[in-house]
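Run log // design_07
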C-alpha cells in the first residue's frame, strides 16, 4: 500500500509540474507576442500602393475589385507576383 501511495504522489507532482510549465509557456508566449506587436513598427514604404510584380494597372484593378467583392470589403491585396 505504501508503494501505491508513493506512486500516486509522484503522479500528482508530475501532473502539477506539467501544468505549471505549460501555463508558463502560454503566459510567456502571449507576453512576447503582445510586446512585439506593441513595439515593433515595420519601416514605412515610400509608396502606399501594393507591389504589382509587373502586372498591368488594369489587371491589378480587376484583382483588387474581385478580392473586395469576394471578401465583402475585408480583404486586402498585399502583393501580386507573376510566375
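design_07 sequence
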Amino acid at each position: 500500500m505504501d508503494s501505491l501511495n508513493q506512486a500516486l504522489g509522484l503522479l500528482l507532482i508530475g501532473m502539477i509540474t506539467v501544468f505549471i510549465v505549460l501555463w508558463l509557456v502560454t503566459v510567456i508566449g502571449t507576453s512576447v507576442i503582445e510586446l512585439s506587436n506593441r513595439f515593433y513598427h515595420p519601416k514605412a514604404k515610400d509608396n502606399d500602393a501594393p507591389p504589382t510584380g509587373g502586372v498591368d494597372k488594369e489587371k491589378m484593378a480587376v484583382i483588387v475589385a474581385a478580392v473586395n467583392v469576394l471578401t465583402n470589403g475585408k480583404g486586402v491585396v498585399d502583393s501580386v507576383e507573376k510566375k
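The chain has a mean pLDDT of 86.
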